From TrEMBL:
Encoding gene, per UniProt annotation: PODNL1
Residue span of region Disordered: 35-66, 86-109
InterPro entries documented for this protein: Leu-rich_rpt (IPR001611), Leu-rich_rpt_4 (IPR025875), Leu-rich_rpt_typical-subtyp (IPR003591), LRR_dom_sf (IPR032675), SLRP (IPR050333)
Name assigned to this protein: Podocan like 1
Organism encoding this protein: Chelonoidis abingdonii (Abingdon island giant tortoise)
Domain of life: Eukaryota
PANTHER family listed in its UniProt record: AGAP008170-PA, PODOCAN
Biased composition (Basic and acidic residues): 47-57
A Pfam family: LRR_1
Keywords: Leucine-rich repeat, Repeat
Cellular component, GO annotation: extracellular matrix
Amino acid sequence: MVRESFGSDVFGDPAEFRLVGDKAPLTLAWAGERGVTQEGSCGPSHSELEEGGEHPNPRSWIGTGQKGEILGGIHPILWGTVSHWPGPPPALSRDAPPSPPLDVGPLPPKNNPGCPANCTCPSEETVECGGLDLHVFPSNISRAVQHLSLQNNQLRELPYDELAQLTSLKTLNLHNNHIISAGLPDEAFESLDSLQYIYLANNKLTVAPQILPSTVRIVDLAANLLTEVYPLTFGQKANLRSVYLHNNQLTNTGLPYDAFSGSNAVSTMILSSNQLSYLPQNLPPALVRLHLQNNRIARIPRGALSSHWKLRELYLQNNNLSNQGMDPSTFSKLKSLEYLDLSNNNLTKIPAGFPPNIMILHLGKNRIDSLPRDSLSRVRGLQYLLLQNNRLTAAGVHPDAFLKLRNLHTLHLYNNRLERVPPGLPRRVRSLMILHNQITHIGLQDFANTYLLAELNLSYNRLYSAKIHRLAFRKLRRLETLDLSGNQLTLLPTGLPPSLQVLKLHKNQINSLSPELLANLTGLKELHLAHNRLRIGSITPGTWQELQGLKLLDLSNNELSYIPPDLPESLEYLYLQHNRIAVIGAEAFHTIPDIRAIVLR
């Protein structure tokens, strides 16, 4: 057997070596204290949002980098098995404009008379001058240009005389410059009768352009310093479809009542991360997506949403909304609404008057302490209900609160004050998150009717082995993932269903394993037993014999003194770090020929 050192250029120290014998190479790694940095790919500073049929998708026309994501303390060999915190489903859309309508490949500049120095001009109609550190608007631009890109430069002003000559211009991208309002004349765009797409995000504007041509379809003024919008900036624009004003300093005073009058075709409005104190009135009636999160909204005026029957997505999270700031008719006219986010507000109860077609309802991070019988009876199409981080108790959940929710498949109740499993769980729920509560026991009937449940998370409660009924999980014949980590269990629960694929029991006080507790789990693929009190003498011979499909076994942070014998032949990942193993016998791994990685320290 040969030791092949990979050297310090892999994990910093010569901490990984490969044992090469007659069988496939086996990688042994010491789990260190290093983090893994995953760099984001280049893309726009605002994530791209595709707007169906609006324009073709470009090749990264806005090229600013995104922040990397650091996963601290996770060794690369363990990265793929990190458990994710249960989160909400992805939003239907994001706070971002679509990219400009340009598909320009890495073509060399053409030597035509309408191409400025250092710019790329694939055709007479397209001029690409992005990222050239320009301080002055380029001259010698062809009057036939239709798509002009000047993003990622140092421009502070736009010369009216030169811009006014570009009468064929359809797309103007000035994203990520230093343009100030004083450098943008009121009449700057007045003569551009063909202009459809204007991108002025990430500049220094304090007021919006006073006049935009009636031809515009998309206007992006996000991430400026805007405090004021004029009536003719967006008003009287029959062709306008999308407006992006997020990350500014707009108040209700700076957004006049008639700001969007006559612009009845606007379908996307992004006003998030401003300083609005109430939901603006007289918004375009054709809105499909309305983003108002991260403001200071404390109330929704009566009738403010009464004409928006096309609205599908409404984002109101991270505001100051209370139940007193709305009335039962606030949402009742939104017949097309599918996605509503009211998380991180000041709600103390479920708001009344929800329309029936909502599919995703976020109510997390409020102060809701009860679910009365009829509080959710209208939203019969609900599929995701997110109530985490509230003040719910089991006594406050009416047994019929979920009775009408026959389509509900995801229910998040984590970080509440539940002392037991709430009664009347929805019959068709498939993912149930009730971790980080105060649950002390699981009774015979707690999950008797949730026969479709595939994912159940009960981690970080106050469960003891003696308080889990031996038949508590008997009806969960489709259960695939069960998380009981972070409790006070001393034994594996009995009666676990054979459908189980992932069983998480780390951070308990389990001190013994026996074959009969695992005999039924023939489909198990992952078994997590880290941070328990297991010793070699407490693992009964034959414990693993029925786990013929097990791929991952985590026994780290226990009290093992040597490698457990008779490990399943199917095993691919074995975690044994932070035990008391001092000697590895020659036959230790002979029963696991398919092993890919063993972590020992």
